[in-house]
Amino acid sequence: MGALATRISDLDRRWLVGVASRHAPPWLDMALRGLTHLGGATCTLLLGVVLLAVPSTRPVGLALLLANASSHLAVQVVKRTAGRPRPHFPDEGIEALVAHPDEFSLPSGHSAAAMSVAMTLLLWTGAEVAGWVAGVALGLAAVVGVSRVYLRVHYVTDVMLGQALGALGAVLATRLVG
């Protein structure tokens, strides 16, 4: 591993250990365990299908589904290429707070999906989407990213790359559909 990659990996580990060492109230654990699902396939695909079913939002729904699919494909290619294992430091008492969806960490698929939805809505703002909807979606995408680190299933850089792939998928899909 190169010097830069080693430094980033060390920084990622320190951030994760710092987050894990904080004693958060039980309600925060429960809230983030629930909110993290907003970046899962069920929520993101369901929103796309619902928007696709309504004639006035059909183009947004199509763009959203294309953004989600393209970002998911990119996430899977990078995960299998990078092969970065998920955070797991039992010697330091750091274990995931939820089940791992798969063994690879980089990038975060939940973060990519949530950002692909949020950016698609943002790019359609003014046409079929109200500005406040896009703002809420961006806030929720950020919360999904934070939840993935908080729940100890991803490093910060996993979330950052996932969000970048989600945003890229949204831009490409919006241009294709729009």
How would you explain this protein's 3D organization?
This protein is mainly α. It has one domain (about 25-175): Vanadium-containing Chloroperoxidase, domain 2 (Orthogonal Bundle). The chain has seven helices and no strands. The chain has helices spanning about 5-20, 25-35, 40-55, 60-80, 110-125, 130-150, 155-175. Helix 3 (about 40-55) runs antiparallel to helix 4 and helix 5 runs antiparallel to helix 6 (about 130-150). It is globular and about 55 Å long. It starts with a helix and ends with a helix.
CATH architectural arrangement: Orthogonal Bundle
Mean pLDDT: 92
Order of helices and strands: HHHHHHH
- Share of residues in strands: under 5%
What global shape is seen?
globular
SSE-based structural type:
mainly alpha
How many strands appear in the DSSP assignment? 0
What do we call the CATH topology? Vanadium-containing Chloroperoxidase, domain 2
**Main beta sheet strand tally, sense and closure:** none
Please estimate the helix content.
55-70%
Radius of gyration: 17 Å
- The domain tally reads 1
Distance between the termini: 41 Å
Low-confidence segments, ≥5 residues, pLDDT <50?
none
- Look at the structure and give the CATH class: Mainly Alpha
What is the overall number of helices? 7
Helix-strand layout with pairing:
Layout: H1 3-21, H2 26-35, H3 41-53, H4 58-82, H5 109-123, H6 131-150, H7 156-177
Helix pairs in contact: 2-6, 3-4, 4-5, 4-7, 5-6, 5-7, 6-7
